[in-house]
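Long-time lurker. I teach an intro course on protein structure, and each term I like to show students one example going from raw sequence to a predicted 3D structure in token notation. This year I'd like something fresh instead of my usual example. Would anyone be willing to generate the tokens for the chain below so I can use it in lecture? Attribution to the forum is fine with me.
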Amino acid sequence: MTRTSRGLILVLGHAVLIQIIIFGMRPSLSYAALEFGSSPAFLGVLSAMYALPALFLALPAGRIVDVIGERGSMLIGAVTVVAAAFVAVVGVGSLPLVSLAAVLLGGGQMFTVLAQQSYIGGISTRHRSDATFGLYGFAASFGQTIGPLLLALPGEHTGTPPLGLVFTISLICAIVMFGVSLFIRSPARSTISARTGMLRTAGGVLTAKGLSGALIAGSLVLASVDIFIAYAPLIGQDRAIPAVVISIILVVRSLASMASRLFLGVFSHAFGRRWLLVGSIVLSAVTLGAFAFDLPAGVLIAFAFGYGFVVGICQPITMSWISLIAPPGTRGLAMSMRLAANRLGQTVLPAALGLLAASAGADGVLGASSIVLLAAAWSGMGVPADTDDIEPDSVEGQ
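-- Reply from a regular --
Happy to contribute to a lecture. Here you go:
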């Protein structure tokens, strides 16, 4: 086994672990806050605390990845996640400690995923980048599927998961993730000058051909997934669809996204990156828009599979594109800009479209979200058709 193959396996395992932790701890922190007696409105504050590190510190974190390398950044992320899980274990009955755990978890997740994505970009060849990022996306989705299963562990109360057990398992996973980080070696990268200002460097990154379009498209697509997950239960209530059917719809969506990411390299070779991105977003708009109509449950499940399959393509292919578009020595910074854009989209768009819920219900929100996806597809038209459109000296680590 080559060093590159061994490193890829380690990073994919690293990706599974962080997603298990995130998708196990985040809902458990919400349960812990409710157990403490906080109002449901505080859950929004808790979610904002988790998002704060990526909204305000993503660019410095990306700069750190470029300066010290992926391995060092993974270690920083792992230590922060270990701290988050430890604080959660000892602070189940304390609202301030639960809030602190959320902030630490968001910061640890930020460093970890930026380092992972930068690493994948560093070891990918120009013509295998989509396939490699597809595997990374599959690993992340796999972890996102396992994490919520922690909530199903038996506990003392049927309405609340065993919070202490969930946080302890998360702590063990975080310690394992730290151990995995020790065996990862950063790929070769272009050097950057520490004297160059971060904002000046970020401005230079934004001038890269197609980067702004990829950032906008990716953030809008990811926000549409959040909206779909958030408003699926409301669809069930409005149309008297049983909760088990809504659960099936959400699971089918997730599994379909996992499946499409396994074949991302094949699809990219067949259709080309630009048209694969634009076409998948357009199909996402169509399949999501179908949920605005009162269709039979079986038809909605079929549309959920279609939506999940095509929407799962966008995130890994934009990661691949950005890693190739980014000027030498700025891959971590470019990925951090993507993360910040995603967090901004996940914060602003659901809040804006949520104003429609009072008057138009879930149908209006999902219909409007499908229209927003068409704008995302238009943004995707600005990216290069494939890596051959990128100047060789703008691709680092290849």
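Some talking points for your students: Residues 3-36 form the longest helix (34 residues). The chain has two domains: 3-189, 207-394.
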